[in-house]
Amino acid sequence: MPYFDAASAAPLHPVARQALLASLDEGWADPARLYREGRRARLLLDAAREAAAEAVGCRPDELVFTPSGTRAVHAGVSGALAGRRRVGNRLVVSAVEHSSVLHAGEVHTAAGGTVTEVPVDRSGAVDPAVFAAALDSGTALACLQSANHEVGTRQPVAEVAEACRAAGVPLLVDAAQSLAWGPVEDGWSLLAASAHKWGGPAGVGLLAVRKGVRFAPQGPSDERESGRAPGFENLPAIVAAAASLRAVRAEAATEGARLRDLVDRIRARVPELVPDVEVVGDPVRRLPHLVTFSCLYVDGETLLHELDREGFSVSSGSSCTSSTLTPSHVLRAMGVLSEGNVRVSLPTGTTAEDVDHFLDVLPGVVAGVRERLGAPAAPPAAPPADSGSLVVDALGRRCPIPVIELAKVIGDVPVGGTVTVLADDAAARLDIPAWCEMRGQEYVGEEASAVGGTAYVVRRRT
Amino acid sequence: MPYFDAASAAPLHPVARQALLASLDEGWADPARLYREGRRARLLLDAAREAAAEAVGCRPDELVFTPSGTRAVHAGVSGALAGRRRVGNRLVVSAVEHSSVLHAGEVHTAAGGTVTEVPVDRSGAVDPAVFAAALDSGTALACLQSANHEVGTRQPVAEVAEACRAAGVPLLVDAAQSLAWGPVEDGWSLLAASAHKWGGPAGVGLLAVRKGVRFAPQGPSDERESGRAPGFENLPAIVAAAASLRAVRAEAATEGARLRDLVDRIRARVPELVPDVEVVGDPVRRLPHLVTFSCLYVDGETLLHELDREGFSVSSGSSCTSSTLTPSHVLRAMGVLSEGNVRVSLPTGTTAEDVDHFLDVLPGVVAGVRERLGAPAAPPAAPPADSGSLVVDALGRRCPIPVIELAKVIGDVPVGGTVTVLADDAAARLDIPAWCEMRGQEYVGEEASAVGGTAYVVRRRT
């Protein structure tokens, strides 16, 4: 049963399991105590810190363990902002950061700070020059992920780090998705990551803060983890996390190349096998194991459900799969289609057979969902005589229905005529322009609608 | 090799180990995902929450899992204070709370709030009437531990809860030390606890917030754990924590009675076997497994080291065993001797033989430490003719030397004469009065010293 959602959580690496079991016996005591069980725990903790620091590329005393990658980001952002409070209160982040960065930004905004989001291109990458331009003398901290968690695009970390250095702004790199594959390019000031993304156990994140970076931990602290992560250390899990990081790094080159080939196969074959698909994310500068595509006229939740029935576990950034019924902020920032969105992230050890089986199953699953939704099967027929413009009322209908209704009637207006779609589903704002781009139609823009929702105007070109 | 520091951390309960192993296979996926691995994880998480809530005595939707007991306290205190910000900014705590509560109080103070510490008696318990008197119309939150972590004294939680109810103030109970032995008496509004204190794994705390309590989570949050504990859930550890809580509760009555007898044996025998010992904490209203005593004229660090050499792992509240070189705030608040302090906390399964062996070894170890420190062996001899007063210079000498020097010369002044001890060690302020009480001498008070440190004045009575 292929599990294709390694970017959410990876099954425990065998090395992690072994290390966890051993340290349940050896590492349960308080490493702050002076008796033998405590000293043994301290030795394990020190060794884990050294191993993790080596993999990160920092000094052991620059690295602390946190209860999760999310908490590492929260502690890193708040500590760095507070450490540079006198410099200014601006936080600069890319628009496609992990939600943990954005949530930390919301808290900063609520406390009177400002957050500047640097836009990304259609591949999901920031432009280093645009990022640099966002840095000003009042910028306390900049955040950039090493690679995007939804579409796999690697960010130009070295260039942005250089811009930050030139501007005198510390850079926090969220390396959660990439640390398994290698160290982050040099130049960062703070780095956060999460063990369960690299086959370590849940309950362990890491936060590295370079010596010399102004850092003032926020919230209550205690004597543990240099005052940066309070509470009893989760030692067996920390030991397992460090051991598995070392293990996945040893396999990273060969396994990365193998998975990269499998992802290339998905990237090439899906558009051949499934009509009306957009594969998103940078095809080259990307994580080896992750690919995302979106299928027109498909309801993401149903698609995931059908794939699950066929034995495939994947995730989605479609609005219907989120609790807020809004599309993924990453897809939104990229301006790409969000309906029928599928993220495939291959865990270590995924076989070519698993991938081929997925490619065998996917076309039928997508076709089945489209058929049930009444999606248009073919491009519009020859235009009728006239009927210059049409209005489609999709108010109250959820993704992908507004786009399906648009596609059904575009053939009913002449070239040059317009279709106006009334919709109140959040995904429409993203998906109607994306549909136009995929279909070679002109997206005119949106207007207020007298009857509620928003009026999206499309002009027929072909 | 007897491990007698269960109050710091308990070895993993066999049931916890079994549950952890099973859920490493079944519970590694993201419980927020819709595919089968995610649904399986969600089922495990729900079941763990139900089991924990039953043991706590609350509804499952009132309970969230946190990364540690410390983090549960921090989240509980900050959320409850923020939820009642409009009522006032006073936090009322007992003087003997766990450091996590005090650290949360420090953050509150730094943010402009006020913290009122309710004193305790010599047994370590608060007086409910005194606690009630500290509650005023501007009190946002009160905190009281269910039982003290250093001396085992149970607090009058029900009476204090009733006083809080009458004053309209929510009560947070830190139940970290007692939850293994049974639910907390009713009447609390918030409750925090820590799994590794009951034989669960590290990395799991729990926070219960009663419905109707105003609560505003502080810091960044996400969709996990009702927005009260951000970050990927540490699911295998949560499952193990819930399973072991259920297991220790099933054994609590019989095991509690057995350990209570063993602790009674220590409480009775130590003062018989070791001269100049003070057993502290309430002898009756106490945790079943924990006892603390202090030995005059003994250096705590050396004592722990010697006991460790004999195979016994215990902890201490002596100043020399703390990184700040100040005695435990608990012993200080109780006004009891802190030098030569030993806390014995018996894990489940401790045998009578282990305890008897400890009682066999302890007298020789204490005598050895005293001999090396030159402690006075016997009460003062008959007073000499006169020499009305004496000054002892113990400046720069650490605990227990100032007390030893005092004891050496008290026989050199006549009854009614005084000894003035010059000392700059923080423990002297606690231990010189405690010595006077143990020895039936009069503690006159402290004075500023012209040559540095503090002058502690003692009048000979016997």
UniProtKB/TrEMBL annotation, chains A, B:
Cofactor dependency: pyridoxal 5'-phosphate
Pfam families xref list: Aminotran_5 (PF00266), TusA (PF01206)
Reaction catalyzed: (sulfur carrier)-H + L-cysteine = (sulfur carrier)-SH + L-alanine
InterPro entries given in the database record: Aminotrans_V_dom (IPR000192), PyrdxlP-dep_Trfase (IPR015424), PyrdxlP-dep_Trfase_major (IPR015421), PyrdxlP-dep_Trfase_small (IPR015422), TusA-like (IPR001455), TusA-like_sf (IPR036868)
CDD domains per record: SirA_YedF_YeeD (cd00291)
Residue runs in coiled coils: none
UniProt xrefs under PANTHER family: CYSTEINE DESULFURASE, CYSTEINE DESULFURYLASE FAMILY MEMBER
The family this protein is said to belong to: Belongs to the class-V pyridoxal-phosphate-dependent aminotransferase family. NifS/IscS subfamily.
The protein, known as: Cysteine desulfurase/sulfurtransferase TusA family protein
Natural source organism: Streptomyces wedmorensis
